[in-house]
Amino acid sequence: MKLYAFDEVDERLLLLPLAARRVLDQLGLRLSRAGWQSLSAQARRTLTELGEAPAVDLASARALLERATPAAEVGAAVADPPAEAAPAAVVAVFGEGRPLAPALWAGLSPLDRYALAKVASKGRPERIAAAYAEIVGASALSTHLSPTGVVRMVDVGQKASTLRRALAESRVSMGAEAFARLEGASAGKGDVLATARIAGIQAAKRTSDLIPLCHAIAITHVTVEIALDAPSRTAHVQASVETFDRTGVEMEALCAASVAALTVYDMLKAYDRSMEIGPTRLLSKSGGRSGDFAR
Question: What is the pTM of this model?
Answer without folding.
Answer: 0.57
